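User: I'm new to structure prediction. If I give you an amino acid sequence, what do you actually give back? Let's try with this one:
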Amino acid sequence: MKSILTSIILVLLVTSCGMIEINESGYRSISHLEGHHIKPFELAESSGSCRDLGCLSVYEITSQNILDSLSNHEYSWIHTWLPFCAIEKCVNIYQFENLENNYKSYGLNMTFISRTYDINKIITRAKQSNFSKTIYVLDGSYFGYKNKKVAKKLYKDLNTNSKEDDYFFYSDYLFKGDSLIYMGNEINDSIIDNLLKSKQLLLYNRDIPVRTF
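Assistant: Good question. You get back a string of structure tokens that encode the predicted 3D arrangement of the chain. For your 213 residues, that looks like this:
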């Protein structure tokens, strides 16, 4: 009886604080107010450039949304990001937009995706970095809310040649059309230059394994 009463009190406390637990630990919770910033994928095309707390939105995305968009671009770069991460490449996210801009003429398009629903962190990082691209979030209703399972599901969906015991914690995937040509946890001018310019023949040979760094 005591344990039941304790559970009821905890539920009431969470509800009264207006929090929604949407991921595996408390720092990934969002308030009901923050929840208004989360929009369906279909509305992303009409998103504006607002970066203020009151109007910025993030758009939920699934693996199928990603795969469906590949045919729209010669090269597609999928970058997944941890907004609560404090290292420089997580804080200054404009560097990814700037890198994409360097290769726009080669048909490169980046899809920038948060792994978690940390709305305040997402908005803060975007404002600090002057980031102007649309920000997506991995759709919890599709991927679930456990970080390891989310990473593994994304990896298996994007890499059709994956095996059960593969390493799967990658932040970056690069496609030519619908062919995966790179996956890794580091991407920079040298890597992209190598893939888009120097090693063009590699991109067309499906017998050559996907390159990882």
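You can read the tokens as a compact description of the fold. Here is one thing that stands out. The beta strands are 19-20, 30-31, 38-39, 58-61, 75-81, 108-114, 135-138, 172-176, 179-184, 211-212.
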